Structure formats: structure tokens, C-alpha cells
Amino acid sequence: MSPATLQAPALHPRCTSLLLAAWGLALLPLLGQLPLFLGAACILVGLWRWQALQRGWPLPARRLRLLLTLAAMAAVQLTFGTVLGRDAGTALLTLMLALKLLETRRPRDGALVLALTYFLTATLALYDQSLPVLLYQLLVFLVVTAALVQLQYGPRPASTAQVLRQAGGLILQALPVMLILFVLFPRLPGPLWGTPAAGDGGLDDRMSPGSISRLGQSDAVAFRVRFDGPVPDSSLLYWRGPVLWYTDGRNWLAQAESDAPGSRPPTLQLDGEAVRYQVTLEPHGRRWLYALDLPTLLPPGSHRHADLLLLASRPVNQVLRYTTASHLHYRTGALTPERRRLALQLPAGANPRTLELGRRLRAQSADDWGVVQAALRFFRDQPFYYTLEPPLLDQPHPLDQFLFQTRRGFCEHYAAAFTVLMRAAGIPSRIVTGYQGGTRNPVGGYLVVRQRDAHAWSEVWLPQEGWVRVDPTAAVAPQRIERGIDTALEQELAHPFRQPHGGSVWDRLHHGLDVLHDGWNQWVLGYGHDLQQQLLARWGLGDWSKRAWLLAGALLLALAVVVALLVLAQRRRRDPAARLYGRFCRKLARCGLARRPSEGPRDFADRISRSRPEWAAQAQAICRLYTELRYAPTGTGEPSGKRRLNELRQRIRRFRP
Amino acid sequence: MSRPAIRSRTEARTIGLLERALAAMSDIILGKETVLRQALTCLLARGHLLIEDLPGVGKTTLAHVLARTLGLRFQRIQFTSDMLPADILGVSVYDQERAAFRFHPGPIFSQLVLADEVNRATPKAQSALLEAMEEFQVTTEGETHPLPQPFFVIATQNPVHQIGTFPLPESQLDRFLMRLHMGYPDRVAERALLLGQERRSLLQALEPVLDPETLLRIQAEVPRLHVSEALVDYLQALLAYSREAPLFRNGLSPRAGLALLRCAQAWALLEGRDHVLPEDVQAVLPAVAGHRLQPAADHPAGDGDLSTALLEAVAVP
Questions:
Q1: What Å distances lie between residue B66 and A430, B24, B284, CA to CA?
Q2: Which residue among A248, A539, B145, B290 is buried most deeply as judged by most CB within 10 Å?
Q3: By mean pLDDT, which of A244-253, A644-653, B30-39, B298-307 is the weakest?
């Protein structure tokens, strides 16, 4: 240790406790992300340091600290198999910072710990970027900054309230800079460091019985939609997702785009006006963008799959905002032989009774549409029930079991059964997954589509029409389509905090919070690389050098404004007489007679009189007025004081050295 | 110079009296106007004075002149190493006629006490004096005897030839409101001294200008002098700097701050003002703070430099 370190004073206990509080606040939300035993280790280390502070427990010796550090690194390596990446990196940072506390005795260590605590707080954004988390981060920043301020007081600490106030002031001063950096700092096109996909998935490009009813329990928002015009009828709100072609009798799979035969866009015939709307999509880690059947306006950077599905160029890992338009009435064109073959594919030997029913329907009906009607009639007339909790289909022929025994199912059961029936009857058909309906938020005037609005339906190909949507669920539970999933499953979903129908205060609060969340998504999280490009291009800032100048200029301006405000605030607090006297002193300083800071007014007046006798009378009069105003019993507040203040102002104005 | 702001006739009279007293003293102690003014300031602020200087520069004469001019009863105590507290405070003697103990007051029962060479006495005798100074009363054998009013102690200390002496510790120095150095007279003053009349006879001829009652009234006037917010700001800036700067071993205590304020008020009164200016604080600070500031271990400097450094470092707001 160098002599300088030996002499450095120890951290004041009050500073240490504030530092520990800041660290604890930063650690708290990360505990949920850490493996349990690592979190417990951090807490234990923190408690140890706290006891060391409170009761004078000894801090561990250097050898033990080294051992603990190695153990922590080994633990992270063993738990995650790596020390890199988001999860392992955060765990390592958290543990190392906790261990650093055990050797934090001097202000130098304290500053390091606090700087790392800022960083630790920032890692929270790798897991969650919602508004509450940001507010919490600001709170932690406040406490960390307060601890840094306290550090500067050294051996004579200020009260905690005072350092918190000062830290608040500092954060307020930093706000303009933060806003400028938010708007202007170049944004990366992808997420930082390949952050793992956020969001709880939503729909997949495969389907099996139970995969959609699983989502039926989830309140998580899938996306929010703002229509330019009126919201279309709910029976038309089919948000298209992955299209499933291939089945093994139980599971359904989509085609990879590359091996989709005939990927060229089908010829479309569109009827009526397009509906324009904006979607703010929550990250789901997949490439598809949800849109109403049938999207005709492609958002920038996306294209339309042959299955009439919008695909982005990259997986959606951040909140994404896009504008699109759809035609709700359309006809698709002809079907290529390869696609016809795929649309009729059936696994050999599976579900024999279902196939037999399909063939029987074919025989009874005149044309394809007749078969569709007959199948829907079958669902309607037989005692089928729509339920979130269907019995398990565990026999070798699940569709047979469903159609002829259990007859209780969610949308994926009906869609799968119907599609297989159609294929058995020789009609090309496929399953479309996506979302149906949505809840209107009366406060924000937009539509919220949640995970439990997930849905699956069928499309059949008819010679004159092309692909036609048929929703067998609508035959079983028409209210699902007309009035949403809550009405359809009222009994099963009847718990008090479920989605609102009425207009109670609770409902309004719920809607209001969603509006807040939506605004946050739209304006903060949705402000990514593309929107920034658009915005800056609209300001005529196409190239990077201009943007760099703007960024630098705006930052300088913001700092100048902050400094000017501080100076003004300080000047306003000063006595008016002192301000006038300052002007007098500046005038004299310009002709080489500067007042020394420690020089009293009378000494200064006497010095002026000695060195420049021609100014003596004026200087003495000004000095007399000034000392009376500042130091005598009559202050500037009283009438005589006001008069004297005016006289002082006049004299100083007239004084021209 | 600005005209003094005078509020009433009695005040005008007070100031006139004080100026006359100062003039009378200056006639005898030549070329030491500032020291005289500071000594009088100390007295007006109801504090006690420590003079540190070589023998023969006029410490005793200063005490005599003050007592004479202000009309105070004077007593001189020469401190020696075999001195006992009773030699200062007085003793209780058994009175056979009245069959009771009777208190015989010591030399301290006087209005102006010159404690000469206070560092020659043992700490025990010193603390007897210092306690009396602090309390304005003497307590022996369970009986409390108030000291006469006004009560003013001038202690002298010889800074050289310290062998066999007990220099006052820093905590005891704090009991003295001011510490002054007389210093040698300048050339002109010394010439006048050499050629002039003998000082003792001049002293005998000196007529009192004030009486104890007037002095008490003026003393009561001092704390009422106006102190503005701006001046308190300055005072606090000085105190804060003394506590924060690495120059000083310890900062000025609140008691030192109060002493500074009282002395500045007394100084302003002597100047004939009804309010305190930063210059008043600056005038008294070396005498008030000089013996309370010690240089920090790694900043060796003379203590005279310390109060100047303090004044130079703090801006007048």
C-alpha cells in the first residue's frame, strides 16, 4: 500500500450506510433474475458489511476475499456454463460488486462501488423496459447520486435529507441532456448484445391440442391497434398469424418460407375500401407482424409471405410500431398443384373415423360449399362444448376421440378437426393461427389484443373464391366471435380481477393504466432505429456529420441553459444592494482598481480615495449608502431603504471611472 | 470616512467619553493607539485580556492607565511558583469574638486585576484565577462571593525564558477573549518617551474619564448593536473556512464565533457606529482568533500568519 492510501481517511459511517442502501435498492429487483443461491449470497455479503458498520464486525482478510472471488466466478461458470452474455454477465457483476463491498473502506472504493451500482441499475433494462422499472431506476439513481454527494462531504457529512435534495437537483439538471441523447443519439438497428427474445412468446409456428388454450389464461398484451377510421365489426377482426399446413394427425406445422412452393404472390382481387391502422407490437421473438386479413400495405422492411402473412426482416425483439392497411373482402387466385397437394395432405392411418365422416359428408353434398355447410351443421347440432379446459386427448387417434367421445374443445380442436374433415372430403384446406377480436380501451380509443385472444381457424380453397375463411368455433360458440372470449367463457373466467365490461372506477383505472403503458410503448420503446431515421430525415438531417453537429450543439445548449438558470437563481437570492455594489466593483475593476475578495467596503473606499483622489467623494458616498443598506438597521425593505437603494442605483449608474 | 450614524444624545455622549478616554490613554502610552483600542474593546465586550510580550514594553503601565482612566479599583497580583489559590482568592479566618469563620477577600476582589506573569504559577493557582474570570464569582469552603462589577483581568505571559514555568494550555487560553502583543514602540514614540516626563508621575496626574456605572451601561449597550444578515453570513463564512481548510488543526469554536461577534460590536461602538461592518470583524479577528488557531501538523506557519490567512481567504459577501 502506498503512503497516500494509508493516510486517506476512512469512509464516514453515514456515507457507508447510504452507499449500502443504494446498493440494496439496486440489487432488489435483480434478485428475481439471479439463481436463488447467488441472490442469497449477495444478501449475506450485504448483511455482513452492514454488521461490520453497525457492530464493528471485522471485514474479511485479503486471502478470504480472494477465495470468495474465485468461488463466485466458479459458481457463475458452473451455473450458466459461461461468464458471458446477459444472464451470466449480470450475475457476475452482481456478485463481484457485492464482494467489493467487503473491502470498501475508503472514499476511493466508495466511488468505485457507486459507479458500478449505476451500471448494475442499468442492467435492469436488459430484462424489463417498462415505465415502472424506469421510475424505480430513477429512484435508485437518486439514492446512488446522494451517496456520491455524501462522499464529497468527507469527514463532515451532511444530513441525508440534504444530500438527497442535492442529488435530486443534479438529476433534474441532467434531464435535458438525457432527453437530447434519447432523441439524437444513434440507435442500433438490433437489440444490444443480442439480448434474448423478450416477451412470453405468444403464438408459435406449430400447433398441438392445448397450445392455444394455454394462452387463453394469459392477460399479457400481444399488440395494440389504433384505427384511422371506425373499428370494423368484430366478426371481421381476424389478425393473421402463422399458417399451418402439415399434420401428423396430432400436431400441425407451418412451412418454412424457403420451401413454400410457389412463393410468388397470388393474384388478388380486392373489394371495397382499405382499412388503415397502426399496430404497436410487443416483442415476441418471431418475424411475423400481425395484421387483419388481408394486409395490402406493407410496412417498410417487411414483405408478404405466400400465405398472405406479413413478415419482418428480423425477429421482433423490441416493441415495434408499424402502419399497415387491410382489405377485409378479397378473393385469392388459383392454387398451384404443389400447394393443392400440401393442402390435401393427411397422415396415413390416423383418425380413421374422422376420415370416414369426411367422405360421408362429401357423398351427401352437392358441391364443396355444401360439404363446408354440412360439417359446420355437424358441429352445431351435436353436443359440442367450447371450453378452456378440454379433457386430455390421449388415445392414438386424437381427432376421433374429440369428435365422437369428448366433444369438448378449444378453438384449436375445432379448427384441426374441421380441416381434417375437409381434407378427407377432398377440399384443399389449412389452419390459420392468430388473434381474434380485441378489447376496446375507451380511454385511449384503441384496441388491445391480448394473448388470450389467440385463436385458430380454417381456410378452405373453393374454385370460384380462392381461399375462404371458415371458423368452426363460430358454429359452436358464436358469442366467442361476436362478443369476445370473456363472454364465451364467462363461467370459467369468473374471477374478480378479470377484464372489465362495465364502467366502474376500477375499470377506468385499468384502462387508464393501459393508456399509459401504450403511450410508453409508442413514444419511448417504439422509438427505435427506424423511427429515429424517419424523424431525423424529416428534419433534413440525412447524413451523420450533420447529426453529430446537432447532437453536440443541442448538448452544449442544454448545458448552457442549465448553467444560466442556476446563475439566475443564485442572483435572484442576492441582496439588491449587493448586486448594485457588484456592478460598482466591476466598473472599477475595469480600470485596474479591483476589490480584493476579502476587502471590506470601507477599506476599499479608502483605498480608492488614496489612489484616485478625484473619485474619493463618489466612492465614499456609494460606500456609505451601501454599508447602510447592507449592514445598518434599516434594510432595503423599508421606505427609506428603498429611497437609499434608488440613490445607490443612480450614483452607481452615474459613476464613470 | 463615513459619518457615524448616531441615534440619540446619550449615545453621542458615550462615544465622546470613550474617545476622550482613548485620547487620555494615548498621551501616556505612546504610539500604541491600536493596542489601546483593542484593549478597550475587550473590556467593553466583558472579556479578559492576555498580553504576551517581553518585560518592559509597558504591559503594567497599560493596565494602570486603563484602571485610572476608567475609574476602576486596581490590584496587581504577581504570580510566583509557590503561590496558592488562597493567595489570589482570599482565606477564611476564625474570628474568636464572633466564634465564626470570616472571609478575608484576596487581591482578586478588585475591578481591574493585573495577573502578572501568570505562567509562573502552578496550574492549581492558574485555574483559581481562570475560574474566577469565567464565573465572575469566587467560591471557597462552600461560600460564594460575587466579584465586584465591572471585573476585568489583564494577564501577562512572558513568551521567552519558559524554563520552570507552566504556560497556559490551549483550552485555558480560550478563556481570554483577546490576546495582544504590545511590541516595541516606533522611533518617534520612543523618542517622545525618552525625552518626556516620567510615566509614573503622569499616571498619578491622570483624571478618570469614566466611572464604573457608565462603564457598565456601555457594556450593556454592546450586544445591542445591530448585526445584519450579511454580516452574519461573513462571520459564518469565516468560521466555516477555519473548520474546513486544511491549514488549521481545529476550527474556531462557537464560543470563538460569539467572542468575535461581541468584539466586533464593541469595536463598532468605539468607532461610533450603531451597526457592525466587515471591517470591524477584520479589525478584531487577529486578537480574538490568534490564540485559538493552531497550525495543522502538515502546515507549519506562525500564528500571526494564520489569522491573516483566514481573513485573506474568505471573501466579504
A1: 118, 10, 19
A2: B290
A3: B298-307
Are A23 and A46 spatial neighbours (Cβ–Cβ below 8 Å)?
yes
Provide the domain limits for residue B287: 225-317
Nearest chain B residue (CA) to A154: B244
**Cβ(A101)–Cβ(A24) under 8 Å?**
no
User: pLDDT averaged over chain B?
Assistant: 84
Please indicate whether, in this complex, the C-beta atoms of B315 and A635 are within 8 angstroms of each other: no
Domain termination residue (choose one: B203, B223, B243): B223
Residue B260 sits in a domain whose CATH number is 1.10.8.80
Burial of B283 (0-12, 13-18, 19+ CB in 10 A): buried
Q: How far apart are CA A344 and CA A460, in angstroms?
A: 10
- In the block, which residue shows the cell 476589490? A595
Give yes or no for residue A213 having a pLDDT over 70.
Answer: yes
Q: How many CB atoms lie within 10 A of CB A359?
A: 14
pLDDT confidence of residue A105: 86
Q: Are residues B179 and B255 in the same domain?
A: no
Contacts of A157 in chain B (CB under 8 A): none
Q: Do A603 and B226 touch (CB under 8 A)?
A: no
Residues B106 and B155 in one domain: yes
Tell me the C-alpha to C-alpha distance, in Å, between residue A525 and each of A197, A227, A388, B187.
Answer: 15, 20, 33, 86
Do B274 and A633 count as a contact with CB atoms less than 8 A apart? yes
Chain A CA closest to residue B278? A600
Confidence band of A2 (pLDDT split at 50, 70, 90)? very low
Does B154 share its domain with B236? no
Residues of A with a catalytic annotation lie at 411, 455, 471
Q: b vs e for A272-282, b when ≥16 Cβ sit within 10 Å of the residue's Cβ?
A: eebbebbbbbb
Q: Does A165 touch chain B (CB under 8 A)?
A: no
Nearest-CA distance from A627 to chain B in Å? Answer: 7
**Dihedral sign, Cα of residue A563, residue A566, residue A569, residue A571:** negative
- Residue B13 belongs to a domain with what CATH number? 3.40.50.300
B152 and B28 inside one domain:
yes
> At residue A623, what are phi and psi to the nearest 5 degrees?
-60, -40
pTM (2 d.p.):
0.55
What are the residue ranges in chain B where pLDDT is below 70?
A: 1-10, 160-162, 298-304
Residue A500 has pLDDT above 70, yes or no: no
Q: Quick one: pLDDT at residue A4?
A: 41
Size (chain A), residues: 657
Q: Looking at the structure, tell me whether residues B71 and B35 fall in a common domain.
A: yes
How confident is the model over A267-293, as pLDDT tens digits?
Answer: 778 888 889 999 988 888 788 899 998
State which of B223, B239, B267 marks the end of a domain: B223
DSSP H helices in A425-501: 472-476, 478-483, 485-488
CA of A630 vs chain B CAs: smallest distance (Å): 7
Closest CA to A79 of A113, A115, A114, A41: A41
Question: Which residues have a Cβ under 8 Å from the Cβ of A500 and sit 6 or more positions away?
Answer: A506, A507, A510, A511
Say how many domains are in chain B: 2
Residue of A156, A585, A610, A630 to mutate, testing the B interface (most B Cβ within 10 Å of its Cβ) = A630
3-state secondary structure of A340: helix
What ipTM describes this predicted complex? 0.84
Task: Give A339-370 pLDDT, tens digit per residue.
Answer: 888 888 888 888 888 888 988 988 888 888 88
Q: What is the pLDDT of residues A471-483, one digit of tens each?
A: 988 888 887 776 6
Centre a 10 Å sphere on the Cβ of residue B129 and count the other Cβ atoms it contains. 25
Q: What is the CA radius of gyration of chain A?
A: 36
The strand pairing partners of A295, in sequence order, are A326
- Pairwise pLDDT comparison (A497 vs A337), residue with the higher score: A337
Chain B residues with CB-CB distance to A610 below 8 A = none
